[in-house]
């Protein structure tokens, strides 16, 4: 038998207790975990539900604070068309979306 070296494990997050409860109850994770929900229509529209605040807003970049991530939407002609208590409706030419885990 050959000695096999253990490969370093990739940085994979294990499910939290709340995630396991949501799975077992077959419930909506964004509601139970207070996570954001993003819905895209191509690269022209995105709806962000359950956001906390708008950190930055320009026509090239919109940064939104959510739980547990800060979401950076980049593109051209970006515009927040509608703001409700927990829903943002953003239009424009979306080129990238980045999630940064806030600690």
Structural descriptors:
103 residues; mainly beta; Immunoglobulin-like; 2 helices
Provide structural commentary:
- By secondary structure, this protein is mainly beta.
- It has a domain at 35-101: Immunoglobulin-like (Sandwich).
- The protein is built from two helices and six strands.
- It has helices at 17-25, 29-32, and strands spanning 37-41, 45-49, 53-57, 61-65, 69-83, 87-101.
- A six-stranded antiparallel β-sheet has the order 1-2-6-5-4-3, with no helix packed on it.
- β1 and β2 (45-49) form a beta hairpin.
- The longest helix has 9 residues, at 17-25.
- The chain is globular, with a radius of gyration of 18 Å.
- The termini are far apart.
CATH class of the domain at 35-101: Mainly Beta
Rounded average pLDDT: 83
**Cα-atom Rg, whole angstroms?**
18 Å
Number of helices, where a helix is a run of at least 4 consecutive DSSP H or I residues: 2
The helix-strand sequence is: HHEEEEEE
The first-to-last residue Cα distance is: 44 Å
Task: Record the strand order, biggest sheet.
Answer: 1-2-6-5-4-3
CATH architecture of the domain at 35-101: Sandwich
How many strands appear in the DSSP assignment? 6
Helical fraction equals 10-25%
Which structural class is indicated by helix and strand composition?
mainly beta
Shape: globular
Remind me, CATH topology of the domain at 35-101? Immunoglobulin-like
- Largest beta-sheet characterization: 6 strands, antiparallel
What are the low-pLDDT stretches, counting only 5+ consecutive residues below 50?
A: none
